[in-house]
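Handoff note, outgoing to incoming analyst
You'll be picking up this chain. Sequence as last confirmed:
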Amino acid sequence: MLFGRHTSKQIGDTAEEKAVTYLLKAGLKIIERNYRAKTGEIDIIAKDKDAVVFVEVKFRRNSSFGQPYESVTYQKQQKIIRTAQYFLQKNRKHSNKSCRFDIISILDNEITWLKNAFS
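Most recent structure output, in case you need it:
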């Protein structure tokens, strides 16, 4: 449950855990969580068949301010792309695979998975 008095970190961690469970059930393998580099952070890095998938997780309790995925701005996308490039440079075994950028959008308890959300 994501309600009650929780810090934004606790809420974010819970949303990411839901996203990981969802992706695992969909057959993806998790490579890394909360990958940090000087360029930014990627919530989840996973493998989907032969593709490396960089996943941004967004949560909102309600849609008063729009859908969660709408908060992934162009600037945020660019940070994720730069961080993904850095990850691929540091992890050569993944560098020859195709990549995609997905968003897991969680509105209350409803999960929407946007594959190829940006490039």
